[in-house]
Amino acid sequence: MPRVKLDDIDLNILRELQLDGRITNVDLAGKVGVSPPPCLRRVRALEEAGVILGYYTSLSMPELGFNVNVFAQVGLTTQAEPDLVAFEKLVQSWAEVRECYMLAGETDFLLKVVAEDWETYQSFVINKLTVAPNVGHVKSSLAIRSSKVLPGVPVRNDNIDL
After folding, report:
1. DSSP string, 49-114
2. pLDDT tens across 67-111, in order?
3. Residue 28 and residue 21 in contact, taking contact as beta carbons nearer than 8 Å
4. Sign of dihedral through CA atoms 69, 73, 78, 80?
5. Which of 7, 15, 47, 55 is positioned for an S-S bond with 21, CB 3.0–4.6 A?
6. Closest by alpha carbon to 81, among 111, 110, 102?
7. How far apart are CA 13 and CA 143, in angstroms?
8. 131: number of Cβ within 10 Å
9. What sign has the CA pseudo-torsion 19, 20, 25, 28?
10. Stronger pLDDT, 160 or 33, i.e. the higher one
11. How many helices (H) and strands (E) does the chain have?
12. CA neighbours within 13 Å on the CB side: how many for 105?
């Protein structure tokens, strides 16, 4: 897929939206130096081109009762493509799995799992993860704290990094 050619205004739009996805089009247009109608056209074009994938709200895990954040390294017994796809499809059905990455190397998948407490996570591992077809082993790493979480990607423009 060819990369989309982005000019300075597009990069500024992306930087501002990544800072505040709830910014109004009028405010966004003012920050990037264009009038609202072309600003909205550019945002829609960036969405249609697949550069902007969506908008979401970041929620507080502890305030919603999720006190445990675990990274589970999963090794499968076979790595045939249909088995990998089947595991990925199964992971989609588990709400407690918030992120899933297929990896190269010793571990086949890295899952980010949230749970109310350690016992709830253990129940997930025992009742869902380790009994899933083709799962050979699971290694869990409990996150003690998070010191940096930035969604998106760095948007560079005029020596400004986000």
Report:
1. TTSS--------TGGGT--EEEEEEEEES---HHHHHHHHHHHHT-TTEEEEEE-SSS-SEEEEEE
2. 999 999 999 999 999 999 999 999 999 999 999 999 999 999 999
3. no
4. positive
5. 55
6. 102
7. 34
8. 9
9. negative
10. 33
11. 5, 6
12. 7
Residue type at 31 in one-letter notation: K
Tokens 């979480």 locate to 149
Given the structure tokens 């990069």, which residue do they identify? 11
Position 160 pLDDT exceeds 60: no
| Stated pTM of the model | 0.83
Amino acid at 72: A
For the chain, list the domains and their CATH numbers.
8-57 (1.10.10.10), 62-142 (3.30.70.920)
The structure tokens 């129940």 sit at 123
